[in-house]
Each structure stands twice: as C-alpha cells, then as structure tokens.
Amino acid sequence: MRIRFGYVANAMGLWNASPSSTVTFTRYSSLPKDSRLEKLHLTTARNLYNTKRILHYNIGNEIELYRFSSSLVPLATHPEVLWDFITPFKREWEDLGHLVNQFNLRPSFHPNQFTLFTSPKQEVTQNALKDMEYHFSMLQAMNALERGLINIHIGGAYGDKKATLKRFHQNLKLVPQKIKEVMTLENDDKTYNVEETLLACEKEGIPMILDYHHYMANKDGVELIHYLPRIFKTWETRQMVPKVHLSSPKSEKEYRSHANFVSADFVLPFFKLAKEIDRDFDVMIEAKQKDLSMFRLIEDLTSIRGVKRITSSVVEW
Fold first, then answer.
1. CB 65 within 8 A of CB 73
2. What is the enclosing helix (H) or strand (E) of 93?
C-alpha cells in the first residue's frame, strides 16, 4: 500500500510566499476607476508568481499533491467586477500547467463553504455555479483538467435532509457535464455524514473524498470499515487513486477546529483500517502548519515497523 501526501495552498517552508493576497470590494471601489483593474492585475500576478514558487518547492521536495488556493484571483466572481483573469495571464497559467504535467503533480481546488447546491434560494445556486466555473477555468487554463479536482460539500440540511438531498440532486443537473467530471464530494463534520455523502456520490457517479477528522466529529453511528471500500470504489469511474483528507482536533473543546499539526495517535486507527483494504491512496493534509505538518506526520508514520519512506512525501506500508 503506497500513500502519497500533500498539503494546502501555502508552503510554510518558503518565505513570504502567500498565493492568497486579496483585494476587497470596498478597497476596489475606493480606487480611481482607471486604477482598479491595475490593482487586480498586480495582486493576481503576485499570487501566480508565488504559486509558481510553491510548485518549484514541491517539485524539489518530491511533493506530488497540492491544493491550489481558491483566492488566486481577487474578485473573480463578484457580480460588479467580473473581469478577464485568463487572457492577461495566459503565459503564467500555462507555466503552472507545464509544471503540473511535466512532474505528474495532482492539483485540486476546494471552493469555500458557500459553494453548495442545497439551498432553496436560486441566487445561492447561481453563485455556486459561477464559483465552480471560476475554479474550472483555472484548471482549464493550466491544461490540468485530466489531473485536477474541484471538491465541495453537499451543504446545509435546511430542516429537512430528505427534501434537501432531493433538491441537491436536482440542482446538480444545472452543473455542466465538463465541470461535473472534475467534481468530488466530501463528508462534513456537522451535517452530512459518511453514509449520506457516499450515497449521493454513488447516485451521481462522483468520487468521494473521505475526511477522517470530519468523520470522527460526525460519526452518527457509521462504522467506517463498512464504507471505506465503497468510498475507494467511487474513484474507479475516473480511474484515479482515491484521496483522503487528514487533520486532527485543535482540542477537545474545539474538536472541529484543525490543529497546527496532525496527531499521529489520532489518525493511526484510520491507517490501520486502510491497511486491511491494502489499496494505494493519496492524503491531503489540512493542518494549519501545512507542509511542515505533512513532513512531521510522515516521520511519525515511518517510525512504525513495516512503514517505509520511498520519497520525501510517499510511504509504503
């Protein structure tokens, strides 16, 4: 069983490399009209430059999994801005894509919690569609659609899970097929548990990402051993290696919040369970210390007999 590890957005091992600099709409509106686009261009250029630095850092450290920041482009979907962020940076997007494809990286995006298809409000659904288009266009600009993923949650329950899930499946029909082909769904820590998310994925033919921390916070009587093989099986339609999210609680009081590092004791039961299935999978680390947390967890795991480190970010168990 081979396990690859990756992390989210910002490389803590690099100085001043945030790929998520923003421009608020208030700040944008306060600028002279002839300076507004320039501000968006400068901020986006800095984010893309830092993303390129991060990809080189990943390549140098043999890290093949990486989640791009959703904040690469400021105000990309704001209804009063809506600007062309692809054409002016065509070369920069292509450079990122060249690195992704040349070094077999696995890129992904994770839109924010407002990108959902369960709301009874039409404007929420329309905004979700715009956000999915935004993320899709970035993958497309990087020529990374075959490798890339856009992961979301099902959303809220709105007092009636059964009716809401029905609305979810109905609203997903509005998602263009090309976007649906790079979508994944993830179980969450409060509302839709592993079983509910898996059933939605199986119905839609969408791969499911297991978030183990969310599972532990929202077990709801589900025994993971009965569902993990089915979760991994959802990836077969895309012929992709399954993907898992790992983090651990900040504290017992703040159980749902992510700690700076991943507790090996917290996640070890999951790895032992996965070992029974004995199938390769990828792990996205969602701890606050990102790449530093990833490296520490790998070191913790390789202290276990039978776990061998193959590269900087890959272990074999």
1. no
2. helix 90-102
Cα distances (Å, whole numbers) of residue 251 to 11, 131, 257, 258, 269 = 24, 33, 8, 9, 18
CA distance 241 to 28: 42
Question: Which residues have CB under 8 Å from 302's CB, separation 6+?
Answer: 308, 309, 315
Q: 206: helix, coil or strand?
A: coil
The secondary structure of residue 133, as a DSSP letter, is H
Output the CA–CA distances (angstroms, integers) from residue 199 to 12, 78, 120, 133, in the order listed: 37, 33, 21, 25
Is residue 160 within 8 A of residue 129, CB to CB? The reply is: no
Query: What's at 111, amino acid-wise?
Result: P
Task: Determine the length of the chain.
Answer: 317
Return the amino acid letter for 40: L
Burial of 132 (0-12, 13-18, 19+ CB in 10 A): buried
Q: What is the pLDDT of residues 102-149, one digit of tens each?
A: 999 999 999 988 899 999 999 999 999 999 999 999 999 999 999 999
Q: What is the DSSP string of 18-77?
A: -S-----HHHHHHS-HHHHHHHHHHHHHHHHHHHHHHHHHHHHTT--EEEPPTTSSTTTT
Q: Which residue has the tokens 């999915």?
A: 132
